[in-house]
Structure formats: structure tokens, C-alpha cells
Write a structure and sequence with these properties.
Length: about 140
């Protein structure tokens, strides 16, 4: 929190989403975004052992739920990491007219997750990690 202009914290089950607050999934658990009938949008923490997802927390679970909660208004960002987690989520964001960003190969420690998104042709922009924050700000 001391190096950025927003609050970053571990998500709590049922916690409302708020402007200026970044929620991070608890270790070993999945984070979903749920829009309630009251239109309130909250964090939903799910046990990491549920489902067939090998990655815990799963980027796909978060992105797919965000796309359901905010159809057509979702920005997906995929950063350095191993495997293909995030590909299905980014595909759904793109399919629903959201925007997709991927970290470039040169600034990745591991060019796995961004690579599968780029190779699938679903990244609107492929940019260095240093430019991602600015691109997010310009997109919202």
C-alpha cells in the first residue's frame, strides 16, 4: 500500500467491491466476483479444492466471474506466469467485447500465460510490464 495509490488487500468473503481497492485472492482459494440481485457486487471466496482447476487461485475463475458481473465492461490483464491459466477468461472477456492486455515476452520472468493468450490472438495489446498500469488507468 505504501508504493501505490490504491489500497491492496486480501479479499474477504462477501466483501463489497469498492473504487480504489484492489482485492487479491487468499492463498489456495479462488476469488469470484458476484453481482447480487441488489446490484451490489461482492467478492466470493471459494475453496481451492472445488472444481477441476489445477491453479489455486485460478485466474480463469476470477476472469469468467468478472465477465458475468460486468458483461462488455471487463478489462483483462495477463502477466508473467507458467501454464495456460487465464486463457479461457481472456477468451470470454474478448468474446463479450471487453479489452485484453498481455505482458510482452521481454519483461516476463516466465512467458507462459501471456504467450498462450498472444498465440491465441486475443490480446488487444502486448506491452511491457512498466506500461500496464498506465494502460489500465487510460482504459477505465
Amino acid at each position: 500500500n505504501s508504493i501505490c495509490k490504491v489500497t491492496v488487500k486480501e479479499a474477504e468473503h462477501g466483501e463489497p467491491l469498492q473504487p480504489g481497492v484492489v482485492l487479491v485472492a487468499p492463498g489456495g482459494k479462488h476469488l469470484r466476483i458476484i453481482r447480487k440481485k441488489t446490484f451490489e457486487v461482492v467478492a466470493d471466496i471459494v475453496d481451492g479444492n472445488e472444481g477441476k482447476h489445477i491453479y489455486k487461485p485460478s485466474v480463469d475463475i476470477l476472469m469468467l466471474s468478472a465477465t458475468e458481473a460486468f458483461p462488455g465492461r471487463t478489462l483483462g490483464v495477463i502477466l508473467t506466469g507458467m501454464g495456460n491459466d487465464g486463457l479461457k477468461g481472456m477468451e470470454m472477456i474478448k468474446k463479450n467485447n471487453g479489452k485484453t492486455l498481455a505482458q510482452d515476452k521481454e519483461t516476463c520472468v516466465v512467458y507462459g500465460m501471456p504467450k498462450v493468450v498472444v498465440e491465441a490472438g486475443i490480446a488487444d495489446k502486448v506491452i511491457p510490464v512498466e506500461e500496464i498500469a498506465g494502460e489500465i488507468v487510460n482504459s477505465v
